[in-house]
Amino acid sequence: MIITPPAQITNYIWLNGELIDSNQANLHLLTHSLHYSGGVFEGERAYNGKVFKLKEHVQRLLYSASVMQLRISYSFEEIIKAHEIFIQANQISDAYVRPFIFRGCESLNMTNNALTVNLMIAATHSVARHSAPEFNLHISRWRKPSTDAFPAQVKSSGHYNMIIVAQSEAKLEGFDDALMLDSSGLIAECTTANIFFAKDGKLYTPVADVFLNGITRQTVMEIARELDIKTFEQRLTLSDINSFDECFITGTAAEIKRVDSITFEDKKISFKDKKITESLIDKYSKLVRS
After folding, report:
1. Half-sphere exposure of residue 218, counting CA atoms within 13 Å on the CB side?
2. How far is CA 35 from the centre of its chain?
3. Angle CA(90)–CA(93)–CA(97) in degrees, nearest 5?
4. CB 198 within 8 A of CB 246
5. pTM for this one?
């Protein structure tokens, strides 16, 4: 069986210090992280040949690896350098970059000291996406786990199992994504993006305690301060949605995307305004390419 890589994938993948032809970069079917998850990764965006906020991404990658007890042999500086080598070898301009730390195939035991820990860097070239005329959410039946069930600030592949199911269910029902609640029924985030609301010239976003405090989320809050837009991090309920004029999501892949509506309990709440959202999109687009 030949596994065909995505059409937009770069020519080379960086794996444990070597550049390997993408068509030859295969893993054994008994790879531990394939069976038990447990790998950690980052989603990064390169603009004009440079990864935006690369240092922050690598810091989070190493933090995630530490929490998941993935004892990687590469230092912060070596991973930064690996990115530079990888980008230069592939002549990357704009791309979605994926560093991934995972356990090897030496054993299928849940834990085994013989398991190697590997580092891979891959990427797909960014292609022009035609935005849908609207972006609509519904409320997922799946909840974010509490902080004593899973470390919220760790970007682990295991955390994405139910996220994938939630997003798939949303699309099967005709929505673009799902808005997820926490175990107390408070608004958390979308499946792979943080969420913001706006009214009266101010931003409101959930407290990032049971979900990942995204790097794009943090960047948007920095931009808001520069634009003199006050941002409030607070507990938000579904009943609060009615009071907002704007809504948007943030993420490395999504960047900043306007939300047109959220549907729950057979009610569709629409967001007509977009002034703040568009000002943030404009500033963000200039920042990532500066």
Report:
1. 9
2. 22
3. 70
4. yes
5. 0.94
The domain segmentation of the chain, as residue ranges, is 12-125, 136-288
Q: Which CATH number fits domain 12-125: 3.30.930.10, 2.60.40.1220, 2.40.30.10, 3.30.470.10?
A: 3.30.470.10
Q: Tell me the per-residue pLDDT of 18-28, one tens digit each, with 9 for 90 and over.
A: 999 998 988 89
Token digits for 215?
């790097």
Pairing assessment for the beta strands 136-143 and 177-181 based on DSSP bridges: parallel
55's enclosing H/E stretch is: helix 54-67
Superfamily of domain covering 136-288 = D-amino Acid Aminotransferase, subunit A, domain 2 (3.20.10.10)
Rounded to whole angstroms, the Cα distance separating 197 from 181 reads: 15
Q: What is the mean pLDDT of each run of 10 residues along the chain (290 residues)?
A: 72 97 91 94 97 98 97 97 98 97 94 93 83 89 91 94 96 97 96 97 97 98 98 97 97 96 94 96 96
Locate 33 and state its tokens. Answer: 């992280």
* Pairwise CA distance, residues 100 & 122, whole Å: 8
